[in-house]
Structures are given as C-alpha cells and as structure tokens.
Amino acid sequence: MRFEDILTNDDVLDGLWDMHFDECTPIQELAMPVIMQGRDLMACAQTGTGKTAAYLLPVINMLAEGQYPDHAVNCLVMAPTRELAQQIDRQLQGFAYFMPVSGMAIYGGTDGETYARERRSLKLGADVVIATPGRLIAHLSMGGVDLSKVSFFILDEADRMLDMGFHDDIMQIVSHLPKERQTLLFSATMPPKIQQLAAKLLNDPAEVKIAVSKPAEKIQQQAYVCYESQKLPILKRIFKENNPERVIVFSSSKQKVKELTRQLRGNSWKVAEMHSDLEQEKRDETMLDFKAGKVQVIVATDILARGIDVDDIEMVVNYDVPREAEDYVHRIGRTARANRDGRAITFVSPDEVFRMKRIEALLEKEVPKQPLPEDLGEGPAYSAGKGRAKAARSKGKPARGRKDNRKPKPEQTARPNTESPQTAGQSDEKPKRQRSKSRWHRRKPDTTK
After folding, report:
1. Which positions ≥6 away from 233 have C-beta within 8 Å?
2. CB–CB of 85/157 below 8 Å?
3. Which domain holds residue 321?
4. CA 165 → CA 159, 182, 183, distances in Å?
5. Are residues 223 and 205 in the same domain?
6. Residues 404, 399: Cα–Cα separation, whole Å
7. Is residue 205 situated within a structural domain?
8. Which residues neighbour 309 within 8 Å (Cβ) at sequence distance 6 or greater?
9. Which tens digits make up the pLDDT trace of 168-212?
C-alpha cells in the first residue's frame, strides 16, 4: 500500500516524496488507517519496522487538518531513553518539514540552563512533545507544562519503559491528561504486564501485531560456549585477529560495562562505554565519536539495543546472553543494516544455556558454535543445565563459591529380605527422633524475682 492511499494532506505527502518514502511497511499499512479513524491502538512490532512513522504521520496529518488549540501540547510521545527521544524528534522534523507543526524533545540534563530552556519552550507551546518519563515529571512537579489539551498520547517502546521501572511515572503522567484522548501503545513485545497497562489506558483498542521477524540473512551469527572467565580472552582474541571498526559489545549490567571497558582500553583499542549513569552530554559525545570513527568499540547495556541510527556497524557481540529472546533480535539487528554485511557473536556461559536455547527456538535454527582457542582449555558442554553447579559437577568439581565438605558415605551391605507376608510393605525403620527443644526452652526459671 502507498502512503497516498492513507494520508490526505498534500504537504505531508510532499515531505514523504522528498524523503523517498513510497511504500508502507506492514506495521504502517495496518496501524495508520486505524489511527486515522480516531481509535485507540495497541500495536506490537519490533524496532526497525517503521513504527515511528506509523504513528507520527497520521498524527501530523490530523494536526495539519484538524482544529486543535494553539500554544498547547496537542500530542505527547513518551520514550524510555534519551536516544530514542532524539531519534523520534529527528523523524518528526523531517516529516513536518513543509508544515507548520512544531515539536520538541524533552530528555533532560543536569545543568539548570537546559532545564530553563525546556521550560521556556513548553510555556510557548508545541504541537508534539517527545519526552522521557522522569524529565517530564520534573516539569509537571514545577508547574511548567500543561497537558490538559493533549489529544494524542503515544507510548513508544512500552515494554522497555516497564522494564526500566517507569510504570508509576506513566500513571502519574496519565493523571494530568484529559480523559477524552486518543491513546496509542507501541511495544516490541507483548508480555502480560503490557496487556495490563493497555487495559488501564486504552479504550476499546484495535490490536495490530507484526510477528518478530528473523534477523537479516546477511548477519553471520556465531556463538562460543565458554565459562565466564573465558569470555574476555576470547573477545580480545577476536579483536586482535580483526581490528574492530564500529563494534557494539552488549553486557548485562552497568557495573560489568564499566569493568569491561577498563579491561579493553588497556589493549590500545579506542573503547567507550554507554549506560544510564552517564550524563547526556557525554552520551551524545560518545555517539558522535562512534559515528565519526573516533571510537572503535562501544560497550553498552541494552540502552543501545533500540533507538540508535548507525547504519555501518560491522559487528555486535553479546558478551552476556540477553534475558529475552526478542532482545537478541533487537541487539544483532544493529548490524547488517542498509543492505550491508554484518557479524553477530554471542558468548554463552553454563548459566545462560537455557536463554540461548530459547533464542534458537525463536530463530527456528541453531546458531553455529565455534571452537575455543586451544590455549584457553575446554569449555562446558552445550546442554540445558541448571547453572553453575551442574556445570561444575560435570567436570568433577564442587560448585564455584562452595566447598565440598561432604563426607563419603560408609559402604552399606544389602540386608536380607525377612518380610513376612503379613508385614510386607511395612517399613522396619525406627521413627525419626523429634527435634530437641531450643536452648530458650531449656533455660532454668528465674528464681531471683
């Protein structure tokens, strides 16, 4: 389907023409007609499918042709991260280039000058405001923004917002919105908690679901089954064999990202870290350096799994297997974009085997396993074990962090079967001794009173 079959405003269509947007993606083809009808919508589609345009274009079209108040916030878009808010804002500026539709992004900063500039802009009003939850609540608490005229409320990457603990913030923001509004919820996954949130916010919504697509065929997927202590040596070996250029290494926690960055910097590679503890200015600077080639490797949490716009990332490394199978698709989808080749490598420790099994079930194929370098020794078996303890037992060692103080059991000889037909099936074991009373019950009575 073509955009001109759905949208009605000529200025919007002219902007799309200049941006070489002709055919709708599946999520756009299904979601845009529903939005144009004024219905609430719950849509499930992974990143990279064009869902930002799926909600921005109809809203811009209706803002341009409808009667909406001036100097007011008419559309509020919530995003989980600053990077995604910036990306949405850039797309908005492109789509509304020929139109008098104003927009601004509110994603924070620690300096007072940034806050004051945002406050002044909100007082002047904007048709579309893209905001992260925490920053918007800061302005609401200071009385710096009026949301009583909002006609469109959009939650983008709703699953990420709930994972990041923004549920209460979202509900607090909703309390400032009018009851009569059009609410659109977009999510990459649809777990029960998203469905519960949708039940609270949406009114008789239409549902659109695009199945999670498989990773691009041009992505060369590989995995190393190894112990946790072997991950860093393998990563260094890969970087020595192929000098890294625009590589993202995903790790599970901020602390691990910081430590891994420190370890890699000691090998003369240009490495930067990306996580939520960094100031906005530092994060922007890191992304600019990464795009310019000044930084070779970014070690990041899942903050970079969605909402970044870099087309020539050559490799993605999953230092830790993601918790959700869909997140694996989002992570490795950062490479092999714009019809380029890419490579995705995943390190799988014994504790993470069951996660990798779920990923392979989603992919409907097994990710090829690579042999470990000989000097690193053998790795664990790739079986659906239950963590470190089972892996350690398979090597004949006690579990890590625990001492094997168990005494060997004395050899027992088989007892002859002396059961009579009358006593067959009855146990001849002595009843278990009752637990003795604690020392508190054995205390002598106090005779001093």
Report:
1. 373, 376
2. no
3. 219-394
4. 10, 24, 21
5. no
6. 8
7. yes
8. 87, 90
9. 999 999 999 999 999 999 998 888 899 999 999 999 999 999 876
Task: Give the chain's domain count.
Answer: 2
Sorted by sequence, the CB contacts under 8 Å of residue 259 that are 6+ apart come out as none
d(CA 165, CA 167): 6
Q: And the tokens for 72?
A: 């007011």
CA 296, 299, 300, 306 torsion: positive or negative? positive
DSSP labels for 302-324? Answer: GGGSSS---S---EEEESS--SS
β-pairing, 271-274 vs 206-209, is unpaired
Question: Which residues face 307 on adjacent strands?
Answer: none
Q: How far lies 268's CA from each of 229, 262, 296, 320, 361, in Å?
A: 21, 11, 11, 23, 39
H-run or E-run covering 230: helix 228-241
Q: What is the pTM of this model?
A: 0.68
What Rg, from alpha-carbon coordinates, does the chain have? 29
Cβ atoms of 48 and 333 within 8 Å: the answer is yes
CATH code of the domain covering residue 389 = 3.40.50.300
CA 186, 187, 188: angle at the middle one, nearest 5?
A: 135
CB atoms within 10 A of CB 38: 10
Same domain, 237 and 315: yes
Report how far apart the first and last C-alpha atoms of the chain are (Å, whole number): 93
Judgement on whether residues 99 and 205 belong to the same structural domain of the protein: yes
89 and 204 share a domain? yes
The verdict on 228 and 332 lying in the same domain is: yes
Residue 430 belongs to a domain: no
- For 289, the token pair is 């350096």
Q: For the segment 203-246, what is each residue's pLDDT rounded down to a tens digit?
A: 999 999 987 667 878 899 999 999 999 999 999 999 999 899 89
229 and 194 part of one domain: no
Burial class (CB in 10 A: 0-12, 13-18, 19+), 32: buried
